[in-house]
Task: structure prediction
Amino acid sequence: MKQSLWFVFMIIIFLSLTFIKLPYYITQPGEAQVLGEMIEVTNGYKEEGDFMLTTVSVGEANIIQYMFASFNDYHELIPLNHIRRPDENEDEYHERQLQMMTGSQDAAKIVAYEKAGKSLKVTYEGVMVTGLISEMPAAEQLKLGDIIIEADGMPINKAETLIDYLKNKEKGEKINLVIEREKKKLEKWITVASFPDTYQTIPEDKVGVGITTLTKRSIVTKPEVDFDTNGIGGPSAGLMFTLEIFNQLTEIDWTKGYKIAGTGEMNEDGSVGSIGGIQQKIVAADQSGADIFFAPVENQNYEDALEAKNDIDTNMKIVPVETFEDALNYLKQLSKKQGA
Result:
């Protein structure tokens, strides 16, 4: 009888350690994935090497994972509220990541097709609401998926336009938004207010309406390009998407036979934005045998990448980039890999 009780007790302990989730996410090196298998330009040129995106594995931590991460390099514990918004569940967080992935693919198409001189038509359709802060005024007036097309009579076609406009507003001001919801146009009046304490940066009193947005656009390209990213989310693959598309559009093989990994958010103007988890991505790229890694300069990403490179003692070349053009210029002077 005692043995049976002991066995049941151990099962309960095991289940508790495994299935009870803590208010933390655990991040660790993911993998480097070949983009030629994810992106296909119709009748695109082939390549001898590979461009690769790098990922960070992210998941809610249980007790065992929490203890394991505490003693392992490049396994990081991050408080839940630093990754998910206070009112956001796991499914909503995942959906937001997929929306950012779509935005990153759009920016990659625009930059790559313009640089390659290929046919590209972009139609800006407004700004999609992708997040709402429950304590803020917009939560009472807007819904996820609403498309903002005007602010105080001014046409809004890009998220950056709306952000710049709202920056000049003061607490208590009212803003008239015209939105599209389920194929209907609606007017909404929203008052600018202070953000909750969890969103504030001391000593500034940050104000706004309490939304996050993404530019909604439709893109038609010739030749066509198709993506199959298998549920990967976030904006950080933008630079590598752009390189892969451009490589398939042009006769020159820009890989020069190398395995080239990297990361960085791609903006429509060709600039490369910083990302999170770059040291874990360095580890992932090294484990996948990458020869070269493109790292954004912004927000010390490049310096952090060099630190990880030296720590794991890899021969992988880390290349700093601020723009898509920087990456191309590096590849332009690169000699073809011997044996490729």
Notes: The domain at 121-217 is CATH 2.30.42.10 (Pdz3 Domain). The chain has a mean pLDDT of 90. The first helix runs from residue 2 to 19. The CA atoms of residues 9 and 312 lie 42 Å apart.
